[in-house]
Write a structure and sequence with these properties.
Elements (H helix, E strand, L loop, with lengths): L2 H11 L2 H19 L5 H8 L2 H4 L4 H23 L12 H9 L3 H35 L3 H12 L2 H4 L4 H15 L2 E2 L6 E2 L13 H26 L21 H22 L6 H15 L11 H25 L5 H12 L8 H4 L1 H29 L7 H20 L2 H19 L4 H25 L10 H32 L1
Antiparallel strand pairs: 1-2
Length: about 500
């Protein structure tokens, strides 16, 4: 480590002007990320123009703050409104919103905040000390490993489908079918567009998520409110216990309980982030699945379990540092956010790749320190802002429901400013409403949709490279391990029930 370059980088990052811009970026990322429909990509793109006007490294550091703050901010709306601010926060809803509805929104947001900070700081440290090593690991992934990784992610459906595995698999298959809409990734053929140019690029994810989780939940809330009023009951606030919202700092018991989950999920998120083409949505679901797998109380997941919040938030925030590793070391963006950050560095005349650590070593250290400070400031700003944001839970149902509807339509329209997005959102909301009424797992559909295109494109690419010879898979032990893990994960609930039935039958005899 070049101490002189590190000292020069620290002088630039710790300057008052840079710190102010960094804080502005983090706060803007948290606020924008908490708004349903405004993804982290959109938040960065909205503030990208500042790179042209801000001198020095401050512009790039500000975007790093937006990147880190945006991923965390999405958990706020996921917990309070059951609406993920970003796709990476979809898994947070599974336990975050139930805990909030159980009268502990402050506890849920506090666990989310410290989990996000832990995952982000962990990945920033890994970025500083392990960038080149983890970049070499990601180079070993061929199209078959990418496919195996996606299949492993899809197998998580069996874990999130706690009520009915069959219904979860049906939802996952529907998600896989929806992922086929649009241009064929290999041949370029347009599929299932029904003659409309809108579907050529596939179904947009943000309107789909808003419809499935927010609009459908609003419809269910309207039904519940109508039932209460018909019964002569007075509609009260969604969260009755105001005292439960005064404490946002996690208790010592929660920290002790969640610490192993933070470590495990941070490692998962960092490694996944270092693999180009993956992202926080995959990391959050895999982290959630592993937390449930290692838990001694699996039955509590989905009802407001602390580990169910800690795992996805630590995992998706750890992706931020991991995704920077291939970008800085190889010049390959880990996700769309780092692709925009790559553009910002290009604007500043900084060329990334192996030469970054020789020709622009000071700039590399500035990015390292910027990522570390972004997560520190995010942790502090998160707890400061929570006491203001959390007041949204005091809104009564009859006032909050129209606000959710407005956010659904505004957030959806702000995505691409097309009326077709609103149609997709409304249709997805109706589907989500009917699915929830019949106890289908919406998360399974989202997992299938997110990972479907990744699975198909990489498997077909492998078939082209290998000329259809599946026996060549034996030359990819890493992929075989991932496929085997996916099979075990998919069948584990069935095997567990069979084992319990066998034990019960033996006990009776």
């Amino acid at each position: 480590m070049d101490l002189s370059a590190l000292a020069a980088a620290a002088a630039g990052v710790f300057s008052p002007v840079t710190l102010v811009w960094l804080a502005i970026g983090v706060v803007a990322g948290i606020v924008l990320g908490a708004m349903p429909g405004i993804s982290t990509n959109m938040a960065i793109s909205l503030l990208f123009s500042f790179c042209y006007t801000i001198d020095g490294v401050a512009g790039v550091v500000m975007l790093l703050g937006v990147y880190c703050g945006g991923v965390y901010g999405g958990s706020i709306s996921a917990i309070l409104l059951n609406t993920p601010g970003t796709p990476a926060n979809a898994a947070t809803m599974l336990d975050g919103h139930p805990m909030a509805r159980n009268g502990e929104p402050g506890r849920a947001l506090g666990i989310s905040t410290i989990s996000s900070g832990f995952g982000g700081i962990f990945s920033a440290i890994c970025l500083i000390f392990c960038a080149t090593t983890l970049a070499r690991v990601s180079l070993k992934f061929t199209s078959l490993e990418y496919c195996a990784f996606a299949v492993f992610g899809i197998s998580i459906i069996s874990s999130v489908s706690s009520k009915s595995i069959i219904k979860g698999l049906i939802g996952g298959v529907i998600g896989l079918l929806l992922a086929c809409v649009g241009i064929d990734p290999i041949s370029g053929t347009i599929r299932y567009s029904f003659g409309t140019s809108y579907l050529v690029g596939g179904l947009p994810l943000i309107p789909l998520l808003i419809g499935l989780f927010a609009f459908s939940q609003a419809l269910i809330s309207v039904e519940e409110l109508a039932r209460e009023q018909a019964g002569g009951e007075k509609a009260e606030a969604i969260f009755q216990d105001g005292k439960a919202m005064t404490r946002v700092l996690p208790s010592r018991a929660d920290i002790k309980r969640c610490f192993p989950t933070w470590l495990r999920s941070s490692v998962i998120g960092t490694v996944i982030g270092a693999i180009p083409g993956t992202g926080g949505d995959i990391a959050s679901f895999i982290s959630y699945n592993e937390a449930k797998r290692w838990s001694k109380h699996k039955e509590n997941f989905g009802t407001g379990c602390p580990e169910g919040i800690a795992a996805p938030e630590a995992g998706n925030n750890a992706v931020t540092g991991g995704a920077m590793i291939p970008m800085l070391s190889l010049g390959v963006p880990g996700d769309s956010c780092t692709a925009m950050l790559l553009g910002a560095l290009t604007i500043k005349g900084i060329s990334v790749g192996p030469t970054l650590f020789t020709t622009h070593l000071e700039s590399a250290y500035q990015i390292f320190l910027g990522m570390f400070l972004s997560n520190i400031i995010m942790l502090i700003a998160g707890f400061i802002l929570l006491r203001f944001v959390i007041r949204i839970v005091l809104i009564k149902s009859r006032h909050l429901i129209p606000l959710i509807f407005v956010l659904c339509f505004v957030g959806t329209y702000s995505f691409t400013h097309t009326f077709e997005d609103i149609i997709v959102m409304v249709v997805a909301g109706l589907v989500g409403y009917l699915a929830a009424k019949h106890e289908f797992t919406l998360s399974a559909l989202v997992i299938g949709y997110i990972l479907g295109s990744m699975t198909e494109s990489n498997f077909r690419r492998y078939l082209l490279i290998s000329s259809g010879d599946l026996s060549l898979m034996l030359d990819h032990p890493l992929a075989l391990i991932l496929f085997a893990a996916a099979l075990v994960t998919l069948l584990s609930p069935v095997l567990k029930r069979a084992a319990e039935h066998f034990k019960a039958s033996r006990a009776q005899t």
